[in-house]
Amino acid sequence: MVAIAALVLTASKSVASERVMYASLGETARAPIGWVEFCSENPTECPNGTSQARDVVMSQTAWKDLVRVNRYVNETIKPITDAEHWGVIEKWSLPTDGYGDCEDYVLLKRKLLIDAGWPREALLITVVRDKKGDGHAVLTVKSDKGEFVLDNQNEDIVAWTETGYRFVKRQSQSDPNTWVALGDARPAIATASAPRR
């Protein structure tokens, strides 16, 4: 609880100083094959078409929702590799049997938040290189107080700049089937006079 209060306080100070950091977006990138196959098997989870990019207003209620969903999924789903689970190297799926790897955790967190009324445009599946250099997936939540990461390797929700990960690519806010590169390690800073990226 202290960590949540500290993060909300930090986020509030950030807004007060009008410096909120967002990942710098690059060119269009190739969607992960796991996403493409998941969408062909679950078309209702991958709506076609574009929409207006929207950020979440990070209120205390919204923060509590994120913490609840992150904790629930991390505690409920048991980790297993796709090779052990499905006999293939890569398969993205909703973990309906209680087992999954990082992408499956992300898909379930995203679904639970969308089902609770969160805008899809603010919930972005993101591919990173973790601290060991391995490929990993996290859920980036884009908000008015910056971008926060829900991760099965970390019980705490942290700002993207605090993960220690190298961000590779993620879904576009305007179209979940379009992915954008995140090759620039320097964050974009939004100010009151500049539009957010």
UniProtKB/TrEMBL annotation:
InterPro entries: Transglutaminase-like_Cys_pept
Xref: Gene3D superfamilies: 3.10.620.30
The protein, known as: Putative transglutaminase-like cysteine proteinase
